[in-house]
Write a structure and sequence with these properties.
The protein is of the alpha+beta class and about 325 residues long. It is built from 7 helices and 16 strands. The protein has 2 domains: about 25-140, 2,3-Dihydroxybiphenyl 1,2-Dioxygenase, domain 1 (Roll); about 155-315, 2,3-Dihydroxybiphenyl 1,2-Dioxygenase, domain 1 (Roll). It has helices spanning about 1-20, 40-50, 95-105, 165-175, 220-230, 240-250, 305-310, and strands spanning about 25-35, 50-55, 65-70, 70-75, 85-95, 115, 125-130, 135-140, 155-165, 180-185, 195-200, 205-210, 235-240, 260-265, 270-275, 280-285. The chain starts with a helix and ends in a 7-residue tail after the last helix.
């Protein structure tokens, strides 16, 4: 009888134990942005950045612009003209969406009652972080569609940026609960922290906290706030050789919108910033630094260029 009781208790505890084990979070899936004019957005992401357009299995109103078969920019129609933010959500990949949903619920995070099913076979759910940002976790479809006819300037979204006002609250969520790992931090001044980079638990893609306020927030025009938030809330595509990337964009007539750079950032990496028609920043960045970073050393391995990126410029290994 005692053996039966032990067995019943063990079986009852199995779901709880399973829910408390976090499945891998392996990288960035996508960032979803709003566009006031779909045609202008399509020109920027298809022509300028060179991404391939596809349907949106999560939202039939939107479109996806693929960087590679499993990473993309999701472009959604702008619903509120007076909304200063042009980002709807940030999304990461996981190997098991349902297990992650249960894990987060066990850690006290408010989660939806079930995962959603995309028409491509993907599974996903959304929650809110302490700042109120919508964060999505995606389990990839069994057979992601190959990407052809694209001419991307880079083949990998290596990080996304997000405005963060309360670093301590963000750390509790992203580091303590989700398991993101420190990568680098720094600021405009040596003794000030403006940016904090945390890699996903099971990969080298990272999230960058943008710990700078929106200075124009008090009584400023919506357009001014939109511009500042568009700089903070951004995505970054890795390139092997910045000189080659910018030269390609220029020679092919793909610099139709505002851009800044190239320049070496405080982290010691080459970067080049472009802005989509609604002011969301798309940053090109080299995978590794070319000089010593300010403020802190890197504490995790850098992302590695894909085979496609290496093939683009095999002579640039020492750049």
């Amino acid at each position: 009888m005692n053996h039966r009781l032990v067995l019943v208790v063990a079986l009852l505890l199995q779901p709880l134990t399973f829910a408390q084990s976090r499945p891998p979070i392996t990288g960035i899936s996508h960032i979803a942005v709003y566009a006031s004019e779909a045609t202008n957005a399509e020109h920027f992401y298809s022509h300028d950045i060179g991404l391939i357009k596809g349907g949106d299995p999560e939202d039939p109103r939107g479109a996806r612009y693929y960087v590679n078969p499993v990473q993309f920019v999701e472009v959604l129609p702008l619903l509120l003209e007076d909304s200063p933010s042009r980002v709807d959500h940030w999304a990461y990949t996981t190997t098991d969406a349902e297990s992650l949903r249960l894990y987060l619920a066990a850690r006290g995070v408010t989660v939806p009652p079930r995962v959603e099913h995309g028409s491509d076979g993907s599974l996903w759910f959304r929650i809110k972080d302490p700042e109120g940002n919508i964060v999505e976790f995606v389990q990839l479809p069994p057979h992601p569609s190959p990407i052809s006819r694209a001419n991307p300037i880079g083949n990998h979204i290596i990080h996304v940026g997000m405005r963060v006002r309360n670093r301590d609250a963000a750390e509790t969520f992203y580091r303590d609960i989700l398991g993101f790992r420190p990568y680098w931090f720094g600021g405009q001044d040596q003794d000030k922290v403006d940016w904090v980079s945390l890699q996903v638990p099971d990969g080298s893609d990272w999230l960058e906290y943008m710990l700078v306020g929106v200075s124009t927030a008090n009584g400023a025009p919506i357009a001014a706030i939109q511009t500042e938030l568009g700089t903070l809330n951004h995505l970054s595509i890795g390139v092997k050789n910045m000189d080659e990337a910018v030269t390609t964009l220029d020679s092919e007539g793909r610099l139709d919108n505002e851009y800044v750079g190239p320049k070496i950032g405080r982290d010691g990496k080459w970067q080049f910033n472009l802005y989509d028609p609604d002011r969301t920043r798309v940053e090109l960045m080299e995978f590794a630094p070319v000089k010593k970073p300010c403020c802190s050393p890197f504490t995790a391995p850098h992302p590695i260029p894909s085979e496609a990126e290496m093939a683009r410029d095999p002579s640039s290994a020492n750049h």
